[in-house]
Amino acid sequence: MKILIVDDERGARQLLKRMLSEILSDRSETGLVLFEANSLKKAVSQINEFQPDIVLLDIEMPEHSGLEIVDFFEDKTIDFQLIFTTAYSEYAIEAFKLNAIDYLLKPIDFNELENAIEKARTKSINGLEYKIEELKQTFLELKSSKIALDIPHGLMFVAPDDIIALVADGMYTTVYLNDKSKTLIAKPIKYFIDRLAHYKFFYKPHRSYYVNLKFLKSFSKKDGNTLTLENGMTIPLARDKKDDFLYIINEVF
Length: 253
Fold this sequence. Notes:
Blueprint: E1 2-6, H1 10-24, E2 33-37, H2 40-50, E3 54-58, E4 81-86, H3 90-99, E5 103-105, H4 110-122, H5 128-145, E6 147-151, E7 154-158, E8 163-169, E9 172-177, E10 182-185, H6 189-195, E11 202-206, E12 209-212, E13 216-220, E14 226-229, E15 234-236, H7 242-252
Parallel strand pairs: 1-2, 1-3, 3-4, 4-5
Antiparallel strand pairs: 6-7, 8-9, 8-12, 9-10, 11-12, 13-14, 14-15
């Protein structure tokens, strides 16, 4: 059996090689060959040269996403089994489930890898190109209805309606979500203000805050004017923003 591992991180490739060697070492078949590539272009070259049976392909890589693999096989039939590896959030995982594409969520679990390999050994390849194109379309739809947050090892897709507030912290921003979680993102608050500008319920009451007025609980004129959100956060309202805020409240509500 020939397996190609595609990941731009050397450590991730080495870990998969060790796990695969252990999983397949006690199988009756002989001749396990493991190849590796650190980019999609190199992977395509390896596929054409060595014709692997299974390809383990990371999605988020420099230059080309793993989802672009079908673009390199427009005139050829994909005749190998494909398993995506991903550090994406639950929103992206739902896309995989909807399109019946095999995936492994990082950090990769040994038993899940073993099950995926066993499944790949027995399933049909028919329709793989179509399934990948459908998956790409699902990702595009996700991006049109959600914004992507850069988190360690991947992206998290969040619907604007689920964002309660964004708080600046230098060149970082803390995103507070409706599920009571919060995430520190390595982007300045201006990035989010630009992305969310066309959502009329988002408002900047202070230079360090950007809030979703759908979660506004109360406005107090005490202690220098403050907004209280449904998650209990207290947000200062800048002195020169008071008249503007009251006007917006009258218009929106």
